[in-house]
Amino acid sequence: MPYLTQLIEGYRRFRETDWAHERERWSELAEGQSPRVMILSCADSRVDPAQIFDAKPGEMFVVRNIAGLAPPYETSRGYHGVSAALEFAVTQLQVGEIMVMGHGLCGGCAAALTGKFDDTEPGEGHFISDWVHMLDHASKTVRDRHDKLDTAAYTDMEQEAVKVSLANLRTFPWIAEREQSGDLKLHGAHFSVAEGQLYILDEAEGDFRLV
């Protein structure tokens, strides 16, 4: 059975249940959106922010990519998808909070730590490698802290990636200005797939604490 058939069946269940129960909400959303938070997370199929945070339609503006990374601010012309989403969320929707959520068993972070896709061609990992190279300094730091690449090292890498993204977010002038004025708050989080538990970053202490 093509998976499209399952998607259509799921859509029909949605129409009969969630959409019907939230009909008034969907009518409001037809007039526009006003989410209060932007979630930047990984594209991994196991870590859907809407499911993890039990969010209703229109509550969160979500952007997902490999390893849930925010790139540094750049003004060169080109296809800056994540930067465009950040710009839209912050300057147009005026969200009050941004959360960067990393997760356990992250393939993108593992690639950054091991160099799995280094020196590959397009279609073999080339684009993945280029993307996670923004974690090069963090991956070296993690490797220096661990004698072997075990579970602890991979978790460390995933959490360091969140810190890198937060630092990169603050290179965007209109994010930094809003954070300094108190109009925007930045958060870091890590979701453990194996445990089903969420950890929030305490930036002052530099560690992640179980919610």
TrEMBL record:
The protein's required cofactors: Zn(2+)
Sequence similarity: Belongs to the beta-class carbonic anhydrase family.
Family annotation (PANTHER family): CARBONIC ANHYDRASE
PROSITE patterns tied to this protein: PROK_CO2_ANHYDRASE_1, PROK_CO2_ANHYDRASE_2
Function: Reversible hydration of carbon dioxide.
Name under which the protein is recorded: Carbonic anhydrase
E.C. numbers: 4.2.1.1
Organism of this sequence: Sphingomonas limnosediminicola
